[in-house]
Amino acid sequence: MDTYAKDNIAIGDAIDDLSDIILDLLQIKWRIENNSPDDGLWYFQLVFSSHTQQHIIDLLSYRKQRK
User: Fold this and answer.
1) Which of 33, 39, 44, 59 could form a Cys-Cys staple with 17, CB 3.0–4.6 A?
2) pTM, to two decimals
3) For residue 13, which phi and psi values (nearest 5 degrees)?
4) 10-38 confidence digits (pLDDT tens)
5) Cα–Cα distances in Å, from 26 out to 2, 7, 33, 45, 52?
6) Has residue 64 got a pLDDT over 50?
7) Beta carbons within 8 Å of 59's beta carbon, 6+ residues apart
């Protein structure tokens, strides 16, 4: 695989990571506004350790590699 293709895949992965982080945060916001702050906090704790955290790590790794 050439460098151009690898860069495109990495950019696509970074966009996917950012999109998933945003979607998780929007879901937390929705739960706070429509259910309760406690539900939003519960969901944050659930989704962060099982999903969001890895996307943040991957996105930061991508940014570090680009520098």
Assistant:
1) 59
2) 0.80
3) -65, -40
4) 577 899 999 999 999 999 999 999 999 99
5) 36, 28, 10, 14, 12
6) yes
7) 14, 17, 18, 21
